[in-house]
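Write out this protein's structure.
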Amino acid sequence: MRTHASVIAAAVVAAMIAILMPIQSFAEPTSGFGIFAGISSTDISADTAELDASGLGVGLDYQIALQENLSLNPFLMLFHEEADSQTATVPFFGTITVEREFDYQILGLQLRFWPHEQFFVGAQVANHDVEETLTFTFPGETVSDSASESDVGFGVAAGAQVGEGLTLTAQYDTVELNGTDFETLRLLIGWRFSMP
């Protein structure tokens, strides 16, 4: 069963493709550094549990114009997400609250196809380094523990560059870390500094 993040991402990419299909003119993408920030929503699923996390992040990239309608974008993103806290009542301990936080460091490469001077669709591969922090709150005591995993994930993106350098991007990717699937949708806004 498809999760809400993948459904939204598929709808965004499908809409972008539908808009761009009739456009026949090509545009040469501009080379230069870009900075961006945005929001994220992640479906996290394992054999024993499923949960949703959301958060904020920032990133930067460098766009390399390969030819009139292709660009290569190495990028780095840092995101922080939090999941809803969970509570349970344990005999002799009382009520225990569990909070989960996730810190993502994502280093990747995106290939973009520009059918129009403003719009692009792309595919990406990236290494995801994810640190999960668990915080257990007992009556009168709080204990935290963290662990990190990393692996390679894949994704797609669609977006636009508007005016002098404003960028808008919808990005979806998925990665499996130690038997747990992470499916993430990010909505990003940024600025491209074009090189002369």
